[in-house]
Amino acid sequence: MIVGIPTEVKTHEYRVAATPEGVRELAHAGHEIVVQSGAGVGSAITDDDFVAAGAKILPDADAVFDAAELIVKVKEPQPEEYERFRADHVLFTYLHLAADEKLTRFLVERGVRAIAYETVQTTDGKLPLLAPMSEIAGRMAPQEGAKYLERPSGGRGVLMGGASGVRPAIVVVLGGGMAGWNAAEIAAGMQAEVVVVDKNVERLREIDRIWRGRIQTVMSSRLAVERVVVDADLVIGAVLVPGAKAPHLVTADMVKEMRPGAVMVDISIDQGGCFETSHVTTHAEPTYVVDDVVHYAVGNMPGAVPRTSTYALTNVTLPYLLALATDGPERAITEDASLALGVNSWDGKLTNEGVADATGVPFTPLGS
């Protein structure tokens, strides 16, 4: 199969869909890999690196899309990329369609077979292709929050770890999954006072067992969220419902009650955000202020550390990519139920129920 890797065009997106190591594995399996010139520059990977691994370099995105059967990306297609897609293309990338009705309708109407990294799910409920980016975004969230807590950045002027005789920052993490766990761990390492809120009591017990009270845990409820958010210096939203829109755990009324200069980091923004006052931002303009509260809601947080992110992503996507290329998409999704759950659109039908509920596009079960 011909696998195409175009340059990402989303604002300040520096990742690339595969490393030279991934290209070498595909080439060894007998596939042809075409890479757009300069696609890896943002991740410190040169065209020569790709060529040495077995790829062919093409001059522009049009050439890559024209040549390839399987398009592998990092981020969802941007409007300027839409017309490059053909009905016979298979697309493998992060899609987050629940927050993007326009893209959803395009993929369905164009007939693109689109498989989303973030909805590939194993039998134990884990999301293996989302996990590394959630881990990275979680680890980034406290450092971004710490930066915007500084007074020159519009924050309260609070140091995460405080100082001798001075209380540290109060950090509230909403969600104890992969992103939230990592956010809490880094915030605790910065010596902040950390509270994790989750509705899964087993996850909270696990945090208590490991951290022995160093990280506080609170069972999620509307009242509990209200109480902890209003006292926080930094709130990190890390709630995920696979394939569906994130719930608004923090309402606009709660934001009005927060401390002036407090900071909110919405890791869930790719799925619509878990703060009612959130809207997506970019690395070029990452923050905005609502009711004196600084909001950070960058839709591709891991794109700021592309070298780390690209390698972490390829580590987990490569086995699935090899299966799609070697077995063909129909056989691959038939033989791997986890990969089948990643299918969001297939032959003109929307096959993810969560996306259908969020966008209003009719749902058709895969294989119907």
Report on the architecture of this protein.
This protein has 368 residues and is α/β, with parallel strands linked by helices. Helices cover 36% and strands 17% of the residues. It has helices at 20-28, 47-53, 61-67, 101-110, 131-149, 178-189, 201-211, 222-230, 252-257, 306-327, 329-335, 337-342, 353-359; strands spanning 2-5, 32-36, 56-58, 70-72, 90-93, 113-116, 170-174, 193-198, 215-219, 234-237, 263-266, 287-290, 293-296, 343-346, 349-350. An eight-stranded mixed β-sheet has the order 3-2-1-4-5-6-14-15, with helices on both faces. Strands 9-8-7-10-11-13-12 form a seven-stranded mixed β-sheet, with helices on both faces. Helix 9 (252-257) links the parallel strand 10 and strand 11 (263-266). The longest helix is centred in the C-terminal third of the chain and has 22 residues, at 306-327. The two termini are 26 Å apart.
